[in-house]
């Protein structure tokens, strides 16, 4: 099952460091069978509160492959630029749609 790493940039604090990150991050994907699904800053918040500066989504063949990439030495080096350059929320999730009874288990009412 494919897995996705979703990056939500909440605040840019050092544009030069963030630019350094974006210049090297795609090279870290080599050898991980990943593809960039979305990588842009043109967005509009339809609900909820920002700020959101940009969103990026990378697809991997599996959760294990995504974790391997995230923990790789190459990405960890690039990540240092991202952490110095901006505040991000980073989420790893699997693709597909689970049955309704498996979605959001913490919201189910006790029976």
Number of domains: 1
Helix content: 25-40%
Largest sheet: 4 strands, antiparallel
Give the termini separation: 32 Å
What Rg is obtained from the alpha carbons, in whole angstroms?
Answer: 16 Å
How many beta-strand elements? 4
Q: What form results from the Cα inertia axes?
A: globular
Q: Largest sheet, order of strands side by side? A: 2-3-1-4
Please indicate the percent range of residues in DSSP E strands (runs of 2 or more). Answer: 25-35%
Can you tell me the residue ranges where pLDDT is under 50 for at least 5 consecutive residues?
none
Label the structural class: alpha+beta
CATH architecture: 2-Layer Sandwich
Q: Return the CATH topology.
A: Alpha-Beta Plaits
Protein architecture, described:
- The chain has 111 residues and is of the alpha+beta class.
- It has a single domain, classed as Alpha-Beta Plaits (2-Layer Sandwich).
- 28% of the residues lie in helices and 29% in strands.
- It contains three helices and four strands.
- Strands 2-3-1-4 form a four-stranded antiparallel beta sheet.
- The protein starts with a strand and ends in a 17-residue tail after the last strand.
- The model has no long low-confidence stretch (mean pLDDT 91).
